[in-house]
Design brief:
Elements: H1 9-13, E1 25-29, E2 34-37, E3 45-51, H2 57-61, H3 64-73, E4 77-86, H4 93-102, H5 107-111, E5 114-118, H6 120-127, E6 136-141, E7 146-151, H7 156-171
Parallel strand pairs: 3-4, 4-5
Antiparallel strand pairs: 1-2, 1-5, 3-6, 6-7
Length: 172
């Protein structure tokens, strides 16, 4: 098991520009594959949803139609969902992941849904998450740099901000 790393050496050494890195964390997708993020994010740019509660799935789903359009227009963008649970729930992984797997008929979506069973405190600290009451949405580039962070259900205002971050990240 890989330990959580809060910031890379690059982020600590860069001067004059604030660079936030997505923390290194290991999880298993709903197809059973173990992945290490951000290394295994496959997109040139990745949209990453972090959810903490089952009822937050509706908030993630609110972004669905917009993200379907985005993926069709920008093949270099990948979308991931990271349901994030406390390490203690690993004992129930089979039941929890099986329930999620059964509710997602699309194998591509299952492959991009990566359940994290971790010590949430350092993960949340590294990402600047102060509350589990809302989903968090990140734009993360291939190098693991966080280009944008938002919180909550889809809104046109959040979508506009995300598009700006995606455009900037894809131009680099």
């Amino acid at each position: 098991m890989i330990s959580l790393v809060t910031f890379s050496l690059l982020a600590m050494l860069q001067v004059g520009d604030t660079v936030r890195m997505f923390p290194v964390v290991e999880g298993r997708n709903l197809e059973g594959q173990t992945l290490v993020m951000p290394r295994d994010f496959a997109g040139d740019v990745n949209v990453v949803f972090v959810a903490f509660k089952r009822e937050q799935q509706a908030d993630v789903d609110s972004w669905g139609p917009t993200l379907d359009t985005l993926r069709a227009r920008r093949p270099g963008v990948r979308v991931y969902e990271l349901p994030t649970l406390a390490r203690e729930y690993r004992l129930m992984r089979r039941f929890i992941d099986g329930g999620m797997r059964g509710g997602i008929p699309d194998s591509a979506v299952r492959a991009a849904t990566i359940t994290l069973y971790i010590d949430k405190a350092p993960f949340k600290r590294a990402l600047g998450i102060t509350s589990e009451d809302h989903i968090q949405v990140f734009v993360v580039d291939r190098g693991g740099r966080i280009r944008w962070q938002g919180s909550g259900r889809y809104t046109p205002a959040l979508w506009t901000k995300m598009q700006e971050a995606l455009r900037t990240a894809l131009e680099r």
